[in-house]
Amino acid sequence: MSNSHPIPAGIVRVSLLGAVNAYLVPEDDGLTLVDTTMKGGVKKIVAAAEKLGKPIVRVLLTHAHDDHVGGLDALAERLPGVEVLISTRDARLLAGDTTLDADEPQTKIRGGLKGARTAPTRTIVAGDRVGSLLAVAAPGHTPGQLAFLDERDGTLICGDAYATLFGVATCAKGKATFPLPALATWHKPTALQTARDLRALDPQRLAPGHGPVVDAPGPEMDRAIARGC
To answer: Would you say 84 and 76 are in contact if contact means Cβ atoms under 8 Å apart?
Structure first.
């Protein structure tokens, strides 16, 4: 387990090798788990929750790529009755449907999309609240990616809209030292606009799917956006 930076709201980063992250978000009724890493990360996630002394009551997914949903089935088996939430749009990807809507850029959806046997118990859209988290539209990496803003302290859990491994980058133009999020991005112009939209939220800290949590990330987000796509 790794909590790279103290986060005022008590959010705990659980990381595989510092590269693939999930987040445990304390709420009054237990823990919200944002993303699941991969199957091999489930034991670390459960151990981190046990250390916090609270049950995982819901699993909230930023998007449907394998490195974010890969532990879902194993977690659902260990946590019978756990609530599972994902965007209405990416629920289709989770179920194996990679077709595009007529009004979406007709670019092939990229990245690992093996899906999961576990179906969401409900789907959500931008503007919905899940406990202390506000769902924010973050398309581009996938059509239905969501980011989640903790309104208590300004932490932005951004999925793959940004990565911070070897420096802050958008998924529209990744770092040469860590190109995977950009290589798995569906539509880079949309992803770049999402990066701008998330920057406009002025988050107090950036909690990505890949890499460490970054405090006061605004200037680094600006530099990443300036690199374009």
So the answer is: yes
